[in-house]
Amino acid sequence: MGKKDVKRPMGPPGPGAGEGAGEPAAEASPAGPVGLPSLELPLTVKEVCRLTGVTARQLQHYDDIGLLCPARSGEGVANNRKLYGVEDIERLKRILVLQEYGLGLKEVGDVLAGGEGKLLEVLEGQLRALRREENRLKNLIVFARFAQVFDDDDVCEALVNGAYEIDDFAEPMMLTPAYEVTCEAARARSEEEWDAMWDEFVAIVGDYVLPEGNTAFCDHERTVERLCAWWGRYNAPLDDRGLLGLWLMLTEDVTAPAIAEVVGGDETPGFLQADLFFVWAKRTLKELVGPVERLVEAEVEGDEGAVEEHERMLLGLFSRATGADEIAKVVDGADLSLFLVDLCEGLLGYLDGLLDSPELMAYVDPEGEVALSREALSRAEGAITRAARRMAAQEGGEPPRS
Fold first, then answer.
1. Of the four, 38, 44, 197, 392, which is 20 to 30 A from 106 by CA?
2. How much is the pTM?
3. How much is the pLDDT for 402?
4. Distance between CA atoms of 178 and 323, rounded to whole angstroms?
5. CB-based contacts of 45-51 (< 8 A; 24+ apart in sequence)
6. What is the mean pLDDT of each run of 10 residues along the chain (402 residues)?
């Protein structure tokens, strides 16, 4: 990285700044470094403060800790003032630049004492920290929009507790045979297997919080895919458990969220849940397009039998996508119907909020793959709700497979 001016007057003129633009800077003259106003060197504290914006208190602190110790005019001479020469000004510029990259004053002193090799070593560490912080800030922005989708009446509640309604919807999944398979796998796991399992989880989260280069939604999709594959290796495949099965991966106990917090910070479990939801949402919105189009065609034709069948198929798709068909194995009748209606209104309401946010859709679907409108989604919600209520009349009825 090249040298950075503390203030434009302290550095050489930039390109186009007068005669000699683009030519090598001239050597410092007795009147001061090139670019300084006509001031005699050395400079007083007041002059340095005026030219750099650094306060006298800062300069005094640098002197006190031995970081920048200018010469003095001499005992008994004009109050023994501090006088800053060319080398002092250059050192001050380096101090300020290194502080811009987040180095503390002790680290700055070590770097200046250690030369170029030490600078490169410390700078690489600071760049990693800055990339990590950049990624965290991006995720904070996305999570804030995510919170608005889930609770636009009380965004603060959603920011604090995340998608708490999905937590409630996922609870019945813990009664299912699929969840028992996970529990059996955990009981049979050896200590070495537990260690390997959590080591792999740490690696996934580590890559998530400190990715290589700029990230896009496809990178977050790969993270979710890695998490699902990881869970499938050590527990049971998640293919047939839909959103609610995926959700339990990060909420069924405190271990995974706690480890994610240690690796990436307190917000990391929420960030992962947000991306998990967005990956599911994009896939589900794409899957709904064809069935909704066929439903509309049947409605236009006035074929009531076909309309009812398409509504049943939409219910099947929704049940599979959410994992409700697994819950249907342990909950039936009116209870299942009520659960499905609430689940449909909740999750499809969230999908509607997503479709209504141009910023989030640009993040989730930059290629414009989702061709479902909010009007079409509303039709799907109505169809699924009607099918769920009809199913309640069937004793022990289960959602049909799409």
1. 44
2. 0.75
3. 45
4. 10
5. 45/81, 45/82, 45/84, 47/84, 48/84, 48/89, 48/92, 51/6, 51/7, 51/9, 51/10
6. 39 35 36 50 90 93 94 63 91 93 92 89 88 89 87 77 86 89 92 96 94 83 93 83 86 85 92 93 95 94 94 94 90 82 91 93 93 94 90 57 46
- Supply the pLDDT for residue 245: 87
pLDDT in the model for residue 31: 40
d(CA 290, CA 30): 79
Instruction: Tokens 């339990």: give the residue.
Output: 248
Instruction: Supply the pLDDT for residue 79.
Output: 64
Of 326, 369, 324, 373, residue with least CA distance to 347: 324
Structural tokens at position 328? 């249907």
Q: Which amino acid is at 68?
A: L
